[in-house]
């Protein structure tokens, strides 16, 4: 029987992402998805929330239960339209997505650094 992590791996493959790219896109630690897969572990609700926020085309009912279609119907059309674009246009879009992912990761790291700095200063007081 497939678990949520197995369906998530199907979605990642369908989206044409590596597990690392996916982890970065949802703000998870590097290696999170592959570690969950290896350990056949459950995915936390906070992670599922991040996935659904980042990938609104993903049918959350399918992800959790396996029932229904992987993608919400209107999003399937958008993905098909993407596949019909020229390779150059697809690469351009993928590059933009990767840049956005990198920007989000950098912003999160900056925020975390500021938080840690405040914590250190508070402890020194």
Q: How would you portray this structure in words?
A:
With 125 residues, this protein is mostly helical. The chain has 2 domains: 1-84, 434 Repressor (Amino-terminal Domain) (Orthogonal Bundle), CATH 1.10.260; 86-125. The protein has 7 helices and no strands. It has helices spanning 4-15, 19-26, 32-39, 45-54, 60-65, 73-83, 87-124. The radius of gyration is 17 Å and the shape is globular. The N and C termini lie far apart (54 Å). The mean pLDDT is 88.
Low-confidence segments, ≥5 residues, pLDDT <50?
none
Order of helices and strands: HHHHHHH
Give a quick account of the main beta sheet: strands, pairing sense, barrel closure. Answer: none
CATH H-level superfamily of the largest domain: lambda repressor-like DNA-binding domains
Mean pLDDT: 88
Alpha-carbon Rg, integer: 17 Å
Shape verdict: globular
CATH architecture grouping of the largest domain: Orthogonal Bundle
CATH class of the largest domain: Mainly Alpha
Q: What's the structural domain tally? A: 2
Strand portion = under 5%
Q: What would the CATH topology of the largest domain be?
A: 434 Repressor (Amino-terminal Domain)
Which bin fits the share of residues in helices? over 70%
Protein name: HTH cro/C1-type domain-containing protein
Keywords: Coiled coil
